[in-house]
Write a structure and sequence with these properties.
about 190 residues, mainly alpha, Hypothetical Protein Ta1238, Chain: A, two-stranded antiparallel ribbon, about 55% helix
Amino acid sequence: MVVLNKIYTRTGDDGTTALGTGERRKKYDLRIAAYGTVDETNAAIGLARLHTRHDAELDAALARIQNDLFDVGADLCTPGQGKGPDGARLTVTAAQVAWLESEIDRFNAALEPLRSFVLPGGTAAAAHLHLARTICRRAERLIAELGNAANEPVTPELLKYVNRLSDFLFVASRYVNEKGTGDVTWKPGQNR
């Protein structure tokens, strides 16, 4: 478990931050940007949860996801086979991806069929979940770039989890929009 007795250390005053391995990187490094965006996703989910408390099942799923996003961050902050300070390396697992897929299927089964693209909106909960979804998509793009263009190691399960998470957030946004009946849908060419 992490113990944080002192919040500021002054070690980042030079524009660098430490990975879980202790290696220092510039704060604008792609890996730092990736797990920073995962953190933004988590914060947006926290904001959405202000509006989902009335639905115990959805709120419990979102709480679990928030915890799992710290696993995602831990996976990202220890590149390659690097070990954390305690010697262990925390990675996202196939079981976490499978759980998320089962939650997508479970919530999606209750929805009205989708007949158009959905605009971000509807209830406050849906709007916040859409915001979390778009931030999650940005995190996914950064993680994919990190693993491909930057040629930095990224575990396959990590990328799968973040991809499925954006799908889950889309389904959850429809779920809180009266199970899809309250969706705000795109009307192609409506304003021409």
